[in-house]
Amino acid sequence: MKLKDFQDFCVGMWTGSKNHEYELHDDYVMGLGLSGEAGEVQELLKKAVRDKKDITKVDKKELTKELGDVLYYMMIICDRHGIEPDDVIKTNVKKLQDRYPKR
Question: What is the 3-state secondary structure of 5-35?
Fold first, then answer.
């Protein structure tokens, strides 16, 4: 699935349609959702460290689900604010290349 197709799917799930109709409070809920899902990713990684497990042995199925939830919120936030996901990626690559030019 292409990134844009995934975004369209996420928007449809959020709004119930592909009309991109959002409510005023959606930004608040999206922000909380994003931070909550990122927290669940942190929790999985933290438990592996806390329990002195090999960090590479984190439950990949659960980690994949939680990362998917983070990506879901990113897609709808981008759509809500008219930002292309590809532009997020390009901007981040440039920022990291500028920050770490020798890597």
Answer: HHHHHHHHHHHCCCCCCCCCCHHHHHHHHHH
CB-CB contact of 13 with 94 (8 Å): no
What residue has token string 């990291």?
96
Confidence of residue 67 (pLDDT cuts 50, 70, 90): very high
Three-class DSSP category at 101 = coil
CA geometry: angle 72, 35, 24, nearest 5 deg = 70
Burial 13-25 (b: 16+ CB within 10 A, else e): ebbeeeeeebeee
Amino acid at 35: S
81: which 2 tokens? 């604010």
Q: pLDDT digits over 15-63, tens only?
A: 987 677 899 899 999 999 999 999 999 999 998 888 877 777 788 899 9
Q: What is the CA radius of gyration of the chain?
A: 16
Domain coordinates in residue numbering, the chain: 1-10+31-82
